[in-house]
Amino acid sequence: MTPKIPRDKENDYTREAADSRRQFLKEQTNAELNYIGQFPFEPNVLQGNIENFIGVAQVPIGLAGPLLVNGEYAKGEFFVPLATTEGTLVASYNRGMKLLRESGGVTTTVVDDAMQRAPVFVFPSAREARDFGIWIKENFDEIKRRAEATTSVGKLRDIQQFPASRFLYLRFNFTTGDAAGQNMVGKATKAACDWIQTVYSNIERYQLEGSFATDKKTSWVN
User: Fold this and answer.
1) pLDDT tens digit string along 50-102?
2) CB of 201 within 8 A of CB of 192?
3) Which of 39, 97, 177, 183 is most buried, by the most CB atoms less than 10 A from its CB?
4) CATH class of the domain whose range is 115-207
5) What pTM does this model have?
6) What is residue 27's three-state secondary structure?
């Protein structure tokens, strides 16, 4: 029978619940887990952030900077703590920040504020992809309704279009309140695209991530 991780159905975010899981893991693996069980906060503050909590691991933190920023909101010199075990990483950041500081600092400008998902739709021809783009514009209100039905916070602001032969890349731009919202907009965009696929003919296929959102990617598109 497969061993089952202990859980407290009444309140699983207590020191006692964490203790029971560490003991369980020790019995299963013979690992000593004394140090991860030492932490300076109550587990109840972690609700919604982690499941089956057993403790805390410490990561070395190095300091780099100062980084000189000439921004519209952030202005001045900033020290940057970096958590890592990769040798020379902090030193490399520190040298880069020194170079930027001696060159006058980093000037930043905010041109937009949105979280994106960029599905790609594939059609038999470029003409059909173009016609689909027209349909998207005409049906934006319903697409927006379908997307926003999955979230109480995210709002679909607009949909950009980037045609490439028989491919049409769409960028769904959302506002997400105080959240970063990557998962939020992924779920909302999928709901909208699934609906589109049921009501619009001639779509050969679609991919939820067409690599046009530039999330965690370097790009001049934005």
Assistant:
1) 999 999 999 999 999 999 999 999 999 999 999 999 999 999 999 999 999 99
2) no
3) 97
4) alpha beta
5) 0.69
6) helix
